[in-house]
Design goal:
This protein is an alpha+beta fold and 578 residues long. Among the domains are: 210 residues, FAD/NAD(P)-binding domain (3-Layer(bba) Sandwich), CATH 3.50.50; 145 residues, D-Amino Acid Oxidase, subunit A, domain 2 (D-Amino Acid Oxidase, Chain A, domain 2), CATH 3.30.9.10. It contains 13 helices and 22 strands. The strands form five sheets. Strands 5, 6, 14, 15, 16, 17, 18 and 20 form an eight-stranded mixed sheet that branches. A six-stranded mixed sheet has the order 8-2-1-13-22-21. It has a three-stranded antiparallel sheet with strand order 3-7-4. Strand 17 and strand 18 form a beta hairpin. Keywords: Membrane, Transmembrane, Transmembrane helix. InterPro entries: FAD-dep_OxRdtase (IPR006076), FAD/NAD-bd_sf (IPR036188). It comes from Geotrichum candidum (Oospora lactis).
Length: 578
Amino acid sequence: MSSPNTKKKEIVIVGAGIVGVCTAYYITRHPKFSPETHHITILEARRPASGASGKAGGLLAMWAFPQQIVPLSFQLHQELAEEYNGAIEWGYRGLKTLCIEGDVSPTNLRNIANQKTPKKPAVDLPEDLNWINTAIIDGWAHLGGADSTAQVHPYKFTLFILKKVLETGAVDLISGKATEVVTNDTGEAVGVKYTTFIDKQNSATRAASAGKKAPPSRKLQTPSSPTMNKSSLHHPDNPTFNNQTQKPNPIQQPSSNISIPESSDSSLSNKPTITTSGIHSHPHNSSTNTNDNYNNSDSYIDNSDLTTSSSVKSESSISTENSSNIFTDDDQRSLDESITKEPNDDESDNTISLEEQPAPTESTPVEEADKPDDGLKYLGGDQIVLTLGPWTSKILPSCPISGLRAHSITIQPSKLVSPFALFTEMRTSRTSYVSPEIYPRKDEVYVCGEGDTAAGVPESTDDVEVLRDRCDELFKNVGYISPQLKNGRILKRQACYLPVVDVPSHSGPFIGNTNVENLYLASGHSCWGINNAPGTGLLMAELLLDGEATSASLDGLEPEFYFDASSSEIPGDETPIM
C-alpha cells in the first residue's frame, strides 16, 4: 500500500469481476499512470471472477450493444489475445456462429424414430458442423464468422489480466464486502466502509446437510425488471435489448452522505436470443444447490478447432478439487506475495483460499485518519469506482439495476465437436419453445438457458441458488440437438445473474460519473459484460485520468443522467433505507 507520508492518488475499485479487473488494467497502462503518483486498491467480497465473470459463456460479437463501444472492445480483445497469447491462455479464437431452428416436440421425435416424417428439403448445414441431428432441423441462418464473432474463457481471461495488474506493484487486492460509500461534508465521495467476510460454506448447503430448511436470501429491492424474452439474449435481433439510448436531464446536486445496504458478488451468464416465438419458462421446484465450484475449466484452452473429451477430468474430481490450471505453482506463489496482508486483530480467518483461485486477503486500509468508529473498516480514495454488476443496487439503492438469473452447464462430449456457436430455437409443442445456447470450447461444451427472476440477488456469489432440474433440462434439450452432447455427461451445473438496467429508454450499461463527485459506476452490461469489459475498462481509465473518455462516446451511458446516487431511496419507494 502507499506510504502514509506519500501523496498518491488513490483509486478504489469495488468488485474484482471482469469489468473491475479490466478497469484496473487499463488504468495501469494509461500514459499518465505512474506507481510513484498513483495507487489502486481492488476491494472484493469473495473471490475474483466468482460471479458472472467466471460462469459466462464468453461470446464476443460485433452485433453486441451498445454499438458505440462494441467495436472498440472487440478490437481490444483481439489486441490482448495477440499480446498475451490469448489462444493458449484463455481460449481466444474466432468462431462461426449460426442460428438454428428445429422441432423437438414429442410427436416429431416419435415420427423421426418411426421414420414417419414427411419428406422435406434437406437442410444443408455447413460441412464441418457434423455434430448436429439434422433430422430435427427446419432451417438455419449464418450470424457471423471469425471476423465478427469470437470467444474467450471468461474465468481464465479475468484471472490472467488480474495477474498482470498485480504484477505492476501498484495495485492491491483486498478482501472486504463494501457496505457504504462515505462522503464528506460537501457531498464528495471519499471512501468506502467494508466488513471482512468470514469464508464459510454457504448456508443453503449447510442447512440441507443438517436436514433443515435454508433461510431465504435477502432479495434485492429494485423496480420490476422489464418483461424479458426468455430466449437467447445475445442474438442480434433480440427485441428485449435495443441500442437506443435517450439522454435525460442530469440529476441535480447530491444531498448528504450515502447510506448503503450490503454489497456482494454474483454470476453472469452469456446467452444470445433467437427471433422466433416467445419462449415459455418451465417451473422448477426441485432440489437446489449453490455455486460452490469456482473452477471453470480443467485444462488450458488453445486455438484448436476441435473440442475433445480426453482432456476433461472426471465429474467427481471437478466437484471436489480445484482444476483451474491458469497459474503454475510458481505463479500462485508470486500472486500470493503480491497480495498485501494485514495482521488480523481478532485472529479470524478472513483469507480466501488460493487453492481455489487467486483471491484477495484482508489488507490495511489506505487511510487510517478519520476512520469511522463503528466497527467497520474504512478504505479511503480520491476516486471510487463501483463495478458490482447485479449487486450495484445493494450499494446504491437508487440505482435501477436488477439481476436476471441464468443457468448453465458444461458438458464433456462423447466425440469431437467443431467450433460453432449455436443459438437455437427449438419447438417443444405447438405453442412452446426452448432456446439453449451452445458454445464449444476445446475441452468442454458450454450450454446456457433461459433467464428467470424467481430468486432475488443473494448476499454473495456463494449463495446463488442453482436449480438442478433447470440444468438437467438444458442437458436433455441439447441432447435432442446433438448426439455427441446427448451421449456426453455434465461436468458442472451453475447459475449466475445478468445485471439488467431497469430503464425503458436505456438497455445499459451505465459507464461514467454519477452525480456524486468522485463516485463512478461501470455496471449494467446485461449479457454483454464479457464482450464489453475491455472497452469499458479503457474508457473508465480515460475518464479517471484524463477527465473524459476519448476512445469512444459515452453519450447516453452516463449514470448521472438516470438516477440520484446520493439517494438512499429505492426507486418507487418513498421510504429511505435506514
